[in-house]
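Think of the structure tokens as a kind of shorthand, similar to the way a musician reads notation: each symbol stands for something richer, in this case the local conformation of the backbone. In the example below we present two proteins back to back. Begin with the first one, reading the sequence and then the tokens, and try to describe in your own words what changes along the chain.
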Amino acid sequence: LNSITPSDELTPQQQQAILLDYQFPNIDDIDDKYHDDDDDNIDDTTNELNDDQYEPNEQNTTEKIKSLQLQISEGIISNTIPITQINQAILHRNQEFQRAKENDTLPSSPACHPHFNHLPPNNGGLWNNTTKFKRILFYHARKAGGSSMNKYLVKVAQAYGIKIEWIEWNAMEEPGTQFDKEDTFYVTHLREPIARSISHFQYNGRWPCKTLQHREFEPTEENAFKLESWNETQGHEAKKTCHTRKNDVFRLGDCAVNCYTQWFGGLSCPRWEVPVEQQYEVAMSKLLKYNMIIVIDKLHDPKYVQAIENFFGVEGLLERGVPYCERMSHKANEKNPLVVTDETRARLTELNRVDLKLYHEISDCLEGGNYEDIPKWDGS
């Protein structure tokens, strides 16, 4: 991959490798070094990286590959890889969804029909129901109750003596594609998109978390960003490129609109120019392969909470986790209450229409409070 130039034709294997590197970077401690798991507390050095710091180390192949993976994991796509060839590599992913939709063979929503089956790679798309899981993978969607879900799933992993890993700032890991991972149980979660977007704005969009950390900073309405401008792929501004120039970096975790589609699909780098509807199809294709999707908006229903706890065989679903910046952002918003006008809410609804479509496709089957299709863990 490191020798690819714009004039090269990529083999199918190279195309797949580029896609998998973007979605599933494998860099030790990347989140610990550059991101806080629960907030946008990014070290200033993240925005100070320049082209020289991203140059591959010519001394050995491993370092060169890590350099490429580091760029891709930050949503930074190397300018040496032709956009048209990246598109060829990634857009074929929606063909599976389209065929299943046309043939009326789409899998049931994992929100209503969670299961303990495993989708091995290179198995022709066939599920295995005899797998002993050794790993939980939790995809943490920002400002959708993820800190609490993560806390609960840690308890689940401990109860069964298995590994747990989570992804927050990178694209969703797709079941059936991981050749170097242990047999994995996949979990993610959803929250109503408009509520999630407003919560994300209050948490880190109104005043950046790293600004609230400064003791001398006093948050006021005058120095706050406005919800009316919280309408771009990059929060308050649109990023058109994905390269390593200072302050010109697109990161998945910073989006404001249609974030589920971006996070789950993994195709939203602006340089790729992938239409949002195609991103949605890829996102849905991945989501429908997950074992469990927890709908945060249903946690007010004790029957739903009991059904989820019965599914995992572990109590404590409602124990709260606390994101890093939560106390500071709550204090700032209490001093300066946010007013959301009907016009602004309507605008957010329009901007998040694709996420709303995804949310309802996955969660509407829970309407009516019928959770009988959520199985109970039998200890086997």
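Once you have a description of the first chain, move to the second and do the same.
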Amino acid sequence: MGGTVSVDEGVHVVVVGGGFGGIAAGNQLKSYKIPFTLIDVKDAFHHNPGALRASVESGFAKKTFIPFKETFGENFKQGRVIDIDLQEQAVILESGEVVHFSHLILGTGSSGPFPGKFGEPVTMENAIQMYEDLVEKVRAAPRIVVVGGGSAGVEMAAEVKTDYPAKEVTLVHSKIPLADDQLLPSVRQGLKEILLGKGVQLQLGQKVTNLRDLILNEAQPDMRILTDKGLEITADLVICCTGIKVNSSAYSRAFHDQLAENGALLVNEYLQISGMENVYAIGDCADIKEPKMAYHAGLHAAVAVENIVRSLSKKSLKMYKPGSLSMLLSMGRDNGIGQLYGYHVGKFVVVQAKSKDLLVWKSWKEMGQTAPP
């Protein structure tokens, strides 16, 4: 991050979305002393990698929500962006308020089912309580089914089994291999072995057919979970970790010609939206061929802000180049597996680097605040 940049009176950057990319962009704009407004529907940043442990370990949720106001002050505005007026260079909030921009960074992220994702416009206190309520339901349920074997599903099953080894935990996944298809085969096989070692029952290569009829995240004795292979599982709690979608509602009308099939925004090598010089997309809502990860969103933010700075001083822009995949999967606080720069890494490295505290300290440091004990 650099020093102060000389800016014209009309320069005002609007950042839509307060996820990992949004807070990184906000902090860098703040360090350059470039006027900006960060807008998010929530009043607090959510450290999403900690969401699954917060569903199992009481007291952990309060470490995963960090208030925006204490970090960004008057540069933060709570609200839901419902449209963008490109002609007037303004974002329009659900309240009717209009916020003008000279440059726009879209970091709206992705949404999915609770507890893996959290996007409700509730207070930080209410959000924390929702996780604490789920902790009690997990504690009370003897049989738990996790639907979805992507990275969230395997981590969820591992968290439950780590704290409650006696519970019957079943993971149902539509594919045979687990987690992200860009992971090394040895990492995906290692995930399977860790789950089996913890006693998780794996039902792979089959889909749950009655998911819409099930009550999720609520303790309900003797629920029947049915699959397309004729399997019937009885459980007392069902947690869904599938159906992650790009959050496109804020921009889909304004950029309907620049959308990928999944709703992400088509960007060039400078992370500018196709055909736009002053609008950037970062994180999950940018159509970049790499896994959707917090780490990547931060890298995108650095490039987008640097390119705004360079454009203000008429300098050539910086290109974003996706690197080799790095992904660490926490399998409870005592285990993990992953890969760094394309190389397989095992339990010791992942436990020390991520599994013990899920990097919550890093987000509190980035937000310039002190984490609760």
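Compare your description with these statements about the second chain. The chain has a mean pLDDT of 96.
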